[in-house]
């Protein structure tokens, strides 16, 4: 696993060992960023189920200004910290060790709004529809924000979600990427 492009392009990232996580493959990550960017002029990122932090680091590498990486696992937080250290710009990242819904409540209380939200929850425990609806109601999404969901291809996310518009749906093996726009 590596950073595909941008300022940190080519740097190797660590991933969690074991079967508890499925890091986004380099091929899928590159495709995601080609669909939403591929490069950015600022923007705030939320990686709600960060795992290794690879999506957030890729977004910062391509020009986003700050990323919030959320994960409830101590092991994941440790790997994310190590991967952020590889960037040599830790000030561009905020780590939040919390369960996803608790973190969303914390962000609402802080009046933070996001330009890019990555949702790649454990497939068996995904509640993406409820979380996106809650983010929209809580005003956590900036106008023109992208919400990028990575789900098992058997999961059928709707074409319209919380008044966000479906921009793209793409399948890669057993994974489906669904991209919404808050327009």
UniProtKB/TrEMBL annotation:
Keyword Methyltransferase recorded: yes
Region (Disordered): 1-23
Annotated GO MF terms: methyltransferase activity; nucleic acid binding
Keywords of this entry: Methyltransferase, Transferase
Pfam families, per the entry: Cons_hypoth95 (PF03602)
Biological-process GO terms, alphabetical: rRNA methylation
Coiled-coil region: none
Name of this protein: 16S rRNA (Guanine(966)-N(2))-methyltransferase RsmD
Lineage: Bacteria, Bacillati, Bacillota, Bacilli, Lactobacillales
Gene that specifies this protein: rsmD
